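Action item from last week, closing it out:
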Amino acid sequence: MITSPGVILKAVLLIAGLWWCKEIFVRLPSDINELRESDKKFIKAVILFYWILTVGIIILIGKFVWGLISNIIEALG
Protein backbone atom coordinates (compact mmCIF):
# COMPACT_ATOMS: atom_id res chain seq x y z
CA MET A 1 0.00 0.00 0.00
CA ILE A 2 1.33 3.41 -0.95
CA THR A 3 0.76 5.80 1.91
CA SER A 4 2.28 8.98 0.52
CA PRO A 5 4.18 10.47 -2.41
CA GLY A 6 7.29 10.21 -0.24
CA VAL A 7 7.13 6.43 -0.48
CA ILE A 8 7.15 6.61 -4.28
CA LEU A 9 10.09 9.02 -4.17
CA LYS A 10 12.03 6.71 -1.84
CA ALA A 11 11.33 3.75 -4.11
CA VAL A 12 12.55 5.68 -7.16
CA LEU A 13 15.68 6.79 -5.28
CA LEU A 14 16.33 3.20 -4.17
CA ILE A 15 16.11 1.96 -7.75
CA ALA A 16 18.32 4.81 -9.00
CA GLY A 17 20.86 4.09 -6.25
CA LEU A 18 20.98 0.40 -7.08
CA TRP A 19 21.38 1.21 -10.78
CA TRP A 20 24.20 3.68 -9.98
CA CYS A 21 26.04 1.10 -7.87
CA LYS A 22 25.73 -1.53 -10.58
CA GLU A 23 27.16 0.82 -13.19
CA ILE A 24 30.04 1.91 -10.97
CA PHE A 25 30.96 -1.64 -9.88
CA VAL A 26 31.15 -2.69 -13.54
CA ARG A 27 33.81 0.04 -13.94
CA LEU A 28 35.94 -1.18 -11.01
CA PRO A 29 38.67 -3.00 -12.99
CA SER A 30 39.12 -0.15 -15.47
CA ASP A 31 39.06 2.45 -12.67
CA ILE A 32 41.79 0.61 -10.76
CA ASN A 33 43.84 0.39 -13.93
CA GLU A 34 43.30 4.08 -14.66
CA LEU A 35 44.32 5.07 -11.11
CA ARG A 36 47.54 3.07 -11.42
CA GLU A 37 48.56 4.18 -14.89
CA SER A 38 47.24 7.70 -15.37
CA ASP A 39 49.35 10.75 -14.70
CA LYS A 40 46.33 13.07 -14.94
CA LYS A 41 45.30 14.22 -11.48
CA PHE A 42 41.90 15.44 -12.66
CA ILE A 43 40.97 11.98 -13.98
CA LYS A 44 42.06 10.39 -10.71
CA ALA A 45 40.05 12.94 -8.71
CA VAL A 46 36.90 12.24 -10.73
CA ILE A 47 37.28 8.48 -10.28
CA LEU A 48 37.78 8.88 -6.54
CA PHE A 49 34.77 11.23 -6.36
CA TYR A 50 32.59 8.62 -8.09
CA TRP A 51 33.69 5.95 -5.63
CA ILE A 52 33.21 8.16 -2.57
CA LEU A 53 29.74 9.04 -3.86
CA THR A 54 29.04 5.34 -4.39
CA VAL A 55 30.04 4.51 -0.80
CA GLY A 56 27.61 7.18 0.40
CA ILE A 57 24.84 5.74 -1.76
CA ILE A 58 25.54 2.24 -0.42
CA ILE A 59 25.26 3.55 3.14
CA LEU A 60 21.94 5.26 2.37
CA ILE A 61 20.60 2.11 0.68
CA GLY A 62 21.65 0.07 3.70
CA LYS A 63 19.90 2.44 6.11
CA PHE A 64 16.74 2.37 3.99
CA VAL A 65 16.67 -1.42 3.71
CA TRP A 66 17.42 -1.80 7.43
CA GLY A 67 14.47 0.52 8.18
CA LEU A 68 12.19 -1.60 6.00
CA ILE A 69 13.32 -4.81 7.66
CA SER A 70 12.90 -3.27 11.12
CA ASN A 71 9.36 -2.14 10.28
CA ILE A 72 8.46 -5.58 8.96
CA ILE A 73 9.84 -7.32 12.06
CA GLU A 74 8.08 -4.83 14.33
CA ALA A 75 4.78 -5.39 12.52
CA LEU A 76 5.12 -9.18 12.85
CA GLY A 77 6.10 -9.10 16.51
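Closing note: Residues 41-76 form the longest helix (36 residues).
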